[in-house]
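Risk mitigation, structural track. In case the binding assays with nicotinamide-adenine-dinucleotide fail to produce interpretable data, a predicted complex structure has been prepared as a fallback.
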Amino acid sequence: MSESPILVTGGAGFIGSNLVDVLVARGHPVRVLDNLSTGKRSNLPVDAGVELIEGDVADAQTVRRAVQGCRAVVHLAAVASVQASVDDPLGTHQSNLVGTLNLCEAMREAGVCRVVFASSAAVYGNNGEGQSIDEDTSKAPLTPYAADKLASEHYLDFYRRQHGLEPVVFRFFNIYGPRQDPSSPYSGVISIFTERAQQGLPITVFGDGEQTRDFLYVGDLVEVLLQALEHPTVEVGAVNVGLSHATSLNELLTAIGDVLGKLPPVNYQQARGGDIRHSRANNERLLQRFRLPEPVTDIRTGLARLLGVSGS
Ligand code: NAD
Ligand code: UD1
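Fallback model:
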């Protein structure tokens, strides 16, 4: 009998499609549930037998159909932009919390247990100024996005205790790499800055550029997600996924300039409301439970790869 598929919700998006590529390359059947709001059909490998269900995680019936017959789920479908959630809390909530709850229910009904969930460093808010944040740091969600991620974690834990679900909850820090869509102001900062730098267009920094983020290359994240799918046991508690290295936006711009050999003009505007000032993972739990690739991709190597500059 052929292996049953792994469902990747949000599989046509940035992280999802990078994961799907590797799953397919390793011979796993894959099903994708995606409403193509930010994801693209063209992100999915051609002729690889990936089944795409074009639909919304906010629709319980669609989620039931997607989960049916699956071996495990990686739940990535969500509005990924913190700023979009500030501008449209209700719309975001449908995808980011109702979607998770629909998935939990559908998995319970279908008897599918393993789910890998993309939570976020955003749940910590502005904790850990200048220091790394471990998983027990108090949670201070500043935005609807962060509130929905934290609530999703709690629902997954309820279904674990009550219904035997096996959630592996990751709090991703800032992920970057190929297929992160640069086309919207809501996109991830590295995709916007690298795209504009390549085109010679001015770059806008919100704030003074001294805010920091812990950037992780998507290929390294995918290796961790694969381990989580296969791990024989599931340990309780969320796991930070980051390199434990803080880079300010000003340092990021310097690095892009060094890699490209040029940098367009940079404007500084008012900081965004709800923006987190500093974010750096304590990743000890990650390193205890999972393996990061050896060597991990440092920011300059990752930028060079993304920008297609030799030396990567
Ligand atoms: P993305 O926007 O590229 O991917 C999200 C995918 O989900 C897209 O393909 C989109 O079309 C789909 N989607 C959105 N709403 C949906 C809905 N209601 N129903 C079905 N599909 C829907 O973003 P990404 O960066 O690949 O993010 C993937 C996941 O990782 C998200 O849950 C995001 O919150 C989380 N995350 C991302 C980062 C990061 O730095 N990129 C960090 C922390 C957490
Ligand atoms: C990102 C992710 C979010 C994730 C979180 C975890 C995206 C779009 N967002 O949010 O899903 O949960 O990390 O840490 O992937 N900025 C500029 N100029 C720009 C764009 C952004 O200065 O043109 C600034 C922002 O104001 C912010 C920083 O860059 O200070 C990072 O922004 P962004 O890439 O949107 O990431 P987060 O908000 O950290």
